[in-house]
């Protein structure tokens, strides 16, 4: 397992029943579907739409030093997507949770399957990402 981030991920049965919590970076080792959120924030200017993006820390456990959305995260145990995006907007972009909750728009979900990790190792990692914009 890679470096721990000490975030509990809820593992649920097919019927939605909560079975256990697991370190979020360990779920890929078991082929468990990982759920997360992404927030894209933009403003309209006279030059057109301007996006707010970030570069992750070079010592981050996943995707270090890469460009990404305004805020993103795995959902922690029993967290709803709206709660997760509001939490991450506050933590990563200093956008107050109250602002995010009042202004965010759900844009849909993206489901995908990673056969290889960002470090090149083979793997089995299904994902569902809940996408939002402000």
Unreliable stretches covering 5 or more consecutive residues: none
User: Over all CA atoms, what is the radius of gyration?
Assistant: 16 Å
Which structural class is indicated by helix and strand composition? mainly beta
CATH level-1 class: Alpha Beta
Helical stretch count? 2
Counting structural domains, the number is 1
Approximate shape = globular
- Distance between termini? 35 Å
String of helices and strands: EEEEEEEHHEE
Main pleated-sheet profile: 5 strands, mixed
Name the CATH homologous superfamily. Answer: Nucleoside Triphosphate Pyrophosphohydrolase
User: How helix-rich are the residues, as a percent range?
Assistant: 10-25%
Mean pLDDT: 87
Subunit arrangement of the protein: single chain
Tell me the β content.
35-45%
Number of E-type strands: 9
CATH architecture: Alpha-Beta Complex
Kindly identify the CATH topology: Nucleoside Triphosphate Pyrophosphohydrolase
Keywords:
Nucleoside Triphosphate Pyrophosphohydrolase, 2 helices, two-stranded antiparallel ribbon, NUDIX_hydrolase-like_dom_sf, five-stranded mixed sheet, Nudix hydrolase domain-containing protein
General description of the model:
- With 134 residues, the chain is mostly beta strands.
- The chain has one domain: Nucleoside Triphosphate Pyrophosphohydrolase (Alpha-Beta Complex), CATH 3.90.79.10.
- Helices cover 15% and strands 45% of the residues.
- It is built from two helices and nine strands; from the N terminus they run E-E-E-E-E-E-E-H-H-E-E.
- It has helices at 81-93, 97-103; strands at residues 8-12, 18-23, 34-45, 48-52, 54-55, 67-68, 71-74, 105-116, 122-133.
- Strands 3, 4, 7, 8 and 9 form a five-stranded mixed beta sheet that branches. Strands 1-2 form a two-stranded antiparallel ribbon. Strands 5-6 form a two-stranded antiparallel sheet.
- Strand 3 and strand 4 form a beta hairpin.
- The longest helix is centred in the middle third of the chain and has 13 residues, at 81-93.
- It is globular.
- The model has no long low-confidence stretch (mean pLDDT 87).
- This is Nudix hydrolase domain-containing protein.
């Amino acid at each position: 397992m890679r470096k721990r981030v000490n975030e509990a991920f809820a593992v649920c049965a097919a019927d939605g029943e909560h079975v256990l919590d697991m370190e979020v970076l360990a779920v890929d080792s078991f082929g468990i579907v990982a759920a997360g959120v992404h927030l894209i924030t933009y403003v309209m200017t006279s030059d057109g739409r301007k996006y707010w993006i970030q570069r992750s820390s070079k010592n981050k456990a996943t995707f270090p030093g890469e460009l990404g959305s305004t805020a993103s995260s795995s959902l922690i145990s029993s967290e709803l997507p709206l709660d997760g995006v509001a939490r991450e907007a506050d933590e990563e972009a200093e956008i107050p949770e109250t602002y995010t909750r009042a202004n965010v728009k759900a844009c849909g979900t993206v489901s995908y399957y990673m056969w290889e990790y960002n470090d090149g190792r083979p793997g089995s990692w299904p994902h569902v990402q809940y996408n939002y914009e402000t």
